[in-house]
Design brief:
- By secondary structure, this protein is α/β, with parallel strands linked by helices.
- Helix content is 38%, strand content 18%.
- The protein has a five-stranded parallel β-sheet, covered by helices on one side.
- A hairpin with a 4-residue loop joins strand 3 and strand 4.
- Helix 1 packs across helix 7.
């Protein structure tokens, strides 16, 4: 039996503030939220040695197991729990254990490619892109990878220049066209507050509307910009300084 889940996709470049937005939504809405980090759906690379895994381009869409993610989202929308994989950034691979994720009123998919896959896009009721200046994003990336993930600074910089930056320009940034809402300057509080208001309004107005573009009816991977404009929140424009 399906449940009235409202599905949100939050995309944006590395270090843009996606996780902050997702956590704020989850903390505000409360127990009715299930967070699905896209990072957990990196392909299982157990067949590769550690040194080989270090050389994989994790910023390319092919690094993710899309079929499993689609399957899990469909199961959640049908009211069924899923066994979500867990990713370990220090070993560049999945952990052995999985975590049981229960279906809830709101499902938040968060990751750089949340607005990339056409089948995933069709499951989303609200599509959000977090846009932050590249200089800010690289500083956040360095802090996160060195402090939180145990990486060395030289390796982080090499990875950014060789794969992160070019993959962002080629694959991530173009998905902005699929967004219903763009949050400029990262997770600024005004934008997040307005986003939460929109989520609550959509949940009230369209109970049970999941997939097929519940938020304004956009279902195409490349929505009409004129049609999307009516659904944009009045967020401040990003600084041009």
């Amino acid at each position: 039996m399906s449940i009235p889940s409202f599905v949100i996709g939050i995309a944006g470049g590395t270090g843009a503030g996606k996780t902050t937005v997702a956590r704020t939504v989850a903390d505000t809405v409360g127990e009715a939220v299930t967070r699905i980090p896209l990072d957990n759906y990196y392909e299982d690379l157990s067949h590769l040695e550690f040194e080989e895994r270090k050389e994989v381009n994790y910023d390319h869409p092919d690094a993710f197991e899309w079929e499993l993610l689609r399957e899990h989202l469909n199961q959640l929308l049908m009211g069924q729990p899923v066994e979500m994989p867990q990713y370990d950034f220090e070993i560049h691979n999945r952990k052995d254990e999985r975590v049981t994720v229960e279906p809830t009123d709101v499902i938040v998919l968060e990751g750089i490619f949340s607005l990339y896959d056409e089948e995933i896009i069709e499951m989303l009721d609200l599509r959000v892109y977090v846009m932050t200046d590249a200089d800010v994003r690289i500083l956040r990336r360095i802090e996160r990878d060195v402090v939180d993930r145990g990486r060395d600074l030289e390796g982080v910089m090499d990875q950014y220049l060789e794969t992160v930056k070019p993959m962002h320009e080629q694959f991530v940034e173009p998905t902005k066209k699929n967004a219903d809402v763009i949050i400029p300057e990262g997770a600024n509080q005004m934008a997040v507050d307005l986003l939460i208001e929109k989520i609550e309004a959509e949940r009230t107005d369209t109970p049970g509307a999941s997939g097929a573009g519940g938020a304004g009816g956009a279902t195409d991977a490349e929505p009409d910009p004129e049609a999307d404009r009516e659904r944009d929140l009045p967020f401040p424009e990003p600084s041009t300084d």
